[in-house]
């Protein structure tokens, strides 16, 4: 029964993640072939947004990889992939504006971003070792270790939940800046929204995946989660008593 539950949850998570990734690839492929009307590559779009918000000290760099774009709050640098950095497409415009939105969050001390940045190392550690600890605890019969492992993984899951409002807020800022600076037409704005929505769904899929494994642990190992360690047996009376 527990094996069937695991396969059902794992299968549902895989299908959802596969669908999300497919949608992102198709959406990105479509709008990466459409030139934006401003004829601006991603790096220029990001610089325009940063300058308009008095953030000239934020750097912009090109990095290798596909969809490797991100903002580093530690170094105050936006890093854009080659297909975004130097390409004047609608997809590049949307992604560079989104990363500029993260830079704006940092510049305005946006609370959820600050908290996520502060606890990210701890969350990564908990997510990496939580499940192995819980599995080990179930094998050796240690309810305490199972509880610690599950709680650690739940903490990592909560951090992933916090990622969602940060990403949605960055996309909202991105669209607002593109409109304010008149860098998009109505058709391009809809395309940019589709790209950002598809990208945001990858974070939703990540949260759903983590939640699925938590549900399985609760179902399969529920007897360990709330079980108290057995009380020590009373000492045996000395011989002859």
- Spatial strand sequence of the major β-sheet: 1-3-2
Quote the distance from N terminus to C terminus. 50 Å
Radius of gyration over C-alpha positions, nearest whole angstrom: 24 Å
Described by the principal axes of the CA atoms, the overall outline is elongated
Main beta-sheet annotation: 3 strands, mixed
- Strand content range: under 5%
SS field, number of helical segments: 8
Helix content: over 70%
What does this structure look like?
This protein is mainly α and 241 residues long. 71% of the residues lie in helices and 5% in strands. It is built from eight helices and three strands. It has helices spanning 2-31, 42-52, 82-85, 90-107, 111-140, 143-180, 186-220, 222-225; strands at residues 59-62, 70-72, 77-80. Strands 1-3-2 form a three-stranded mixed sheet. Helix 4 (90-107) crosses helix 7, helix 5 (111-140) packs antiparallel against helix 6 (143-180) and helix 6 runs antiparallel to helix 7. The longest helix is centred in the C-terminal third of the chain and has 38 residues, at 143-180. It is elongated. The mean pLDDT is 84.
SSE topology sketch:
Blueprint: H1 2-31, H2 42-52, E1 59-62, E2 70-72, E3 77-80, H3 82-85, H4 90-107, H5 111-140, H6 143-180, H7 186-220, H8 222-225
Parallel strand pairs: 1-3
Antiparallel strand pairs: 2-3
Helix pairs in contact: 1-7, 2-4, 4-6, 4-7, 5-6, 6-7
Which key features would you list for this structure?
3 strands, three-stranded mixed sheet, single chain, 241 residues, mainly alpha, elongated
